[in-house]
Amino acid sequence: MNQTPKAKMMHTFLKRMTLATVVGLGSIAAFALPSDRNQPITLLADRATFNERTGVTTYSGNVIIEQGTMKLQANSIVANLNNKRQISLITATGSPAQFQQKVDPAKGLAKGQAQKIVYNAETGIITLSGNAFLQQDGASIRGATLKYSMNKGDIEATGTPNKTGSSSGRVQIVIPPSSSTSFPGARD
């Protein structure tokens, strides 16, 4: 089958865009349900560009990426490749950028949102900044910036100093009551 040079170039471009997306999402999906990794990846965007020289792939315009229970929505997503042509950094921006994923079959969907979500594949750290919010099964954490280490399972929340004592801008954590836990002296 003879393809024109332009058709060959478009085919190569699409293969590279797909590879960059699959590699990037595969890094994030490693901490999801095992069944998610076996699901197809669907990517919708108004525009997609790939720069071979810099290794930067950009998706813009109501970007939606889905794989199994994982869903990421943003105004734009930029994926940067390192010198080994592997995803090193994924940045999603939006008003807000949102994601959800089921990471444990016994728990509900984990959901998060922020103005900017950055995933560093080399350190395994996800940083949500700009009115960042994470929730799962009634528990939530909110702050100006939230950093989650996928390797350690640690989360660090940073708020804005507030001398008035109000909750505005400060870290806010909500822990739902547990039906299996009771406090000493508490009556049913």
UniProtKB/TrEMBL annotation:
PANTHER family: LIPOPOLYSACCHARIDE EXPORT SYSTEM PROTEIN LPTA. Belongs to the LptA family. The keyword Transport applies. This is Lipopolysaccharide export system protein LptA. Involved in the assembly of lipopolysaccharide (LPS). Required for the translocation of LPS from the inner membrane to the outer membrane. May form a bridge between the inner membrane and the outer membrane, via interactions with LptC and LptD, thereby facilitating LPS transfer across the periplasm. The gene is lptA. Keywords: Periplasm, Signal, Transport. It comes from Acinetobacter lwoffii. Gene3D superfamilies: Lipopolysaccharide (LPS) transport protein A like domain (2.60.450.10).
